[in-house]
User: What shape does this take?
Amino acid sequence: MTFWGGRWRDSGGSSRIPVLNPATGSILAESVESSPEQIRAAVHAAAAARGVWNGSSPSERAELLNVIADALEERAEELALLVTDEVGTPIAESRRMQLPTAVHTFRSTAAAIEDLSFREMLGTSVIEHCPIGVVAAITPWNYPLYLAACKLAPAIAAGCPIVIKPSEIAPLAVTVLADLCHAAGVPEGSLGLVQGSGETVGKALVEAAGVDMISFTGSTRTGARIAAQAGRLVRPVALELGGKSAAAVLDEALLESAVRQTVAKCFQNAGQTCAALSRLLVPGHLKAPTEELAVAIAGEYAAGDPRDPQTTLGPLASKAQLRKVRRFVRRADEEGARVLCGGWDLPAGVGKGYFARATVISDVSPEMEVAREEIFGPVLSILAFEDESEALAIANGTEFGLSGAVWAADAGRAMRFARRMRAGSVSINGAPTNADAPFGGFGASGFGRERGRAGIEEYLATRAIHSVANG
Ligand code: NDP
Assistant: This one.
């Protein structure tokens, strides 16, 4: 189905896309691709709604965002199960991460509106920060609700109509979110949802007449294509792309915590997290104890039914993703790295579904593929360094720059290292990520920031109106 103008409509497309449960391979639902006419109609309705928020105050929009957050919370368990079924995230993790991050995004955006000044004076000129217009939003499957919330909430806050295309792999929870937004009172026309594959529907949405800005989360490969399209159309674009993030352990003091938290950040959502800490950098003399710890901790991740609250490692979201991850591990072995645990076979006790094994690889050197490419699976690489400057060179040595972590007994030393990491977000000694802080990347991890005030500013354009003092 396709949503625009305040109701669901027949998608009109000829292609039917099965939504699979990755734990079993069985069909959960089927979506029908939005036809080109339906995509155009959704964008047209959004363009017609450009001024619909004009009469609303920031506080009213903040209130609406909180109503959506309440509605998400009310249906949290049902939605957590839906995400678990369509993505494969273990239910405990869906309850802890998938849902609360989406709820928090609406609430924190509501709070951030109050900090923003949409209008300020500069001498006798008025500087206005106005809604940029119709946003075409494209999101991936790994955190479907949260990543959709990262686009819907700031669009509402800024007063922009938005048309969203979730991934065909996991579109179900986002369709419920669209219903909740509508029921909460998002004005007619200002919200559209189109369904189908990226190659057809995503491309058509990016190019549709009436789109004023594109906000994309996904792989660097697709992001580069969209940026090229946007460039030809002279449309602003915000890109939240892939990562190959490093955790650098500078000394022995916090080794066990560092390894435990890095493994957890790497294996979260079966490694399908853009900010996954997939490279663990340790001084050469700590390599052996690090390997021992990492293997022991990885052994605690048992693949199993994602609906079982005890499961810590769910399946990957698709067969294609599984093949990709297994190929990376095999290539690492061929390139001379040492696969300490896991590997490219199916995990024990799992008969069907797209399960990868919790894998730790050592003797990885920075030029190996496994150290450079985003894997998006439960695969941790251990790299050894001689001194701090080499650690920094390795950490900053990929094309990406999304997130990072540093561990050191001396907090000042850790801070100095963190400030030299080329990453949009760095954690020191296991500090949890502040979910209100801006999030985004350097280099091939994209440009633009989401969350909080910075996230709303992405959807605003500046206008200066000059008048004489007494006019
Ligand atoms: P993809 O780039 O394959 O897909 C992302 C979205 O783009 C999907 O909705 C997809 O549609 C769509 N798409 C694919 N091709 C096109 C196209 N030519 N034109 C327009 N849209 C298109 O990424 P994945 O879904 O595989 O997601 C994983 C990637 O997302 C990883 O690289 C990860 O790091 C990144 N990511 C980044 C985050 C960040 O904040 N920086 C957060 C989370 C993930 P469909 O799937 O329906 O074909």
About this structure: The pocket of NDP is lined by residues 138-142, 147, 165, 167-169, 197-199, 202-203, 206, 217-219, 222, 225-226, 240-243, 274, 374, 376, 402, 441, 445-446 (CB under 6 Å). Residues 296 and 447 are 37 Å apart (CA to CA). Residues 91-115 form the longest helix (25 residues).
